């Protein structure tokens, strides 16, 4: 059953708001983790390394963490894309 124009706009608005909130949270998480990586994680996880080498090691872990968070977010992104596609279906 096709959505009415009002319902389609409502669904699209919900998808855009959800996407914006999710993206904001993800970028805040990325900023926070990156800051902590440079300031804390080198000393915490690599205490016996030279400070420069420990910092580099901590930053090398960052892409691994980002990939795992992207894989964890995949179902939500699929649901969001499905909502947007449903809202765009021609009536």
Topology, pairings included?
Elements: H1 5-45, H2 51-88
Helix pairs in contact: 1-2
Number of separate strands: 0
Q: Count of DSSP helices?
A: 2
Radius of gyration: 20 Å
Q: Taking all residues together, what is the mean pLDDT?
A: 79
Number of domains: 1
Task: Please provide a written account of the structure.
By secondary structure, the chain is an all-alpha fold. The chain has one domain (5-88). The protein is built from two helices and no strands. Helix 1 packs antiparallel against helix 2. The longest helix is centred in the first third of the chain and has 41 residues, at 5-45. The mean pLDDT is 79.
Summarize the structure.
The protein has 91 residues and is an all-alpha fold.
Core attributes:
91 residues, mainly alpha, 2 helices
């Amino acid at each position: 059953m096709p959505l009415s124009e009002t319902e389609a706009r409502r669904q699209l608005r919900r998808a855009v708001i959800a996407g914006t909130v999710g993206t904001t949270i993800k970028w805040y998480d990325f900023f926070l983790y990156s800051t902590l990586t440079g300031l804390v994680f080198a000393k915490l996880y690599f205490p016996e390394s030279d400070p420069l080498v420990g910092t580099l090691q901590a930053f090398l872990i960052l892409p691994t963490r980002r990939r795992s968070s992207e894989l964890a977010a995949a179902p939500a992104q699929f649901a969001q894309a499905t909502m947007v596609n449903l809202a765009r279906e021609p009536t």
